[in-house]
UniProtKB/TrEMBL annotation:
InterPro entries: DHquinase_II, DHquinase_II_CS, DHquinase_II_sf
EC number: 4.2.1.10
MF-aspect GO terms: 3-dehydroquinate dehydratase activity
PANTHER family: CATABOLIC 3-DEHYDROQUINASE (PTHR21272:SF3)
One GO-annotated biological process of the protein: quinate catabolic process
Pathway: Metabolic intermediate biosynthesis; chorismate biosynthesis; chorismate from D-erythrose 4-phosphate and phosphoenolpyruvate: step 3/7
Catalytic reaction(s) noted: 3-dehydroquinate = 3-dehydroshikimate + H2O
Coiled-coil intervals: none
Protein name: 3-dehydroquinate dehydratase
Organism: Flavobacterium terrae
Residues of the active site: 22, 97
Length: 137
């Protein structure tokens, strides 16, 4: 099984950025622990702060991978383009968020990804990614 995790803007700062909201663990370290735990899953990771690069990556893998776990960060609430791309590809996408977006600012309650995603996992910290992996298994 081949699964790609895509993180959007500012998620490269995990462990440093607003630890009260996002925790203090570096994502690379967490990703390594996922790869160790799920040896039967070919896990890959991609991060970009640029919307078009995320769309390009979705198009690149969206017809050949078994699953995509997407935390589009702020683009979740603004990017019709990413939402349309998910609708256009065949690989199932699970939308994840580290924080509970519904307990935050009202603009974070809207997702352009959710209507086209297989499912949404919100508010379980970094464990949201692991829950998404388990959903593909």
């Amino acid at each position: 099984m081949k699964v790609l995790i895509i993180n959007g803007p500012n998620l490269n700062l995990l462990g440093k950025r607003e630890p009260s909201v996002y925790g203090n663990q570096d994502f690379d370290f967490f990703f390594d622990s996922l790869k160790t735990k799920y040896l039967n899953v070919d896990l890959e990771y991609f991060q970009s702060n640029i919307e078009g690069e995320i769309i390009n990556k979705l198009q690149e893998v969206g017809f050949s991978y078994d699953g995509i776990i997407l935390n589009a960060g702020a683009y979740t609430h603004t990017s019709i383009g990413i939402g349309d791309c998910i609708k256009a590809i065949v690989t199932p996408v699970i939308e994840v968020h580290i924080s509970n977006t519904f307990s935050r600012e009202s603009f974070r309650h809207q997702s352009y990804i959710a209507p086209n995603a297989k499912g949404v996992i919100i508010g379980f910290g970094l464990q949201s990614y692991e829950l998404a992996i388990q959903s593909f298994l």
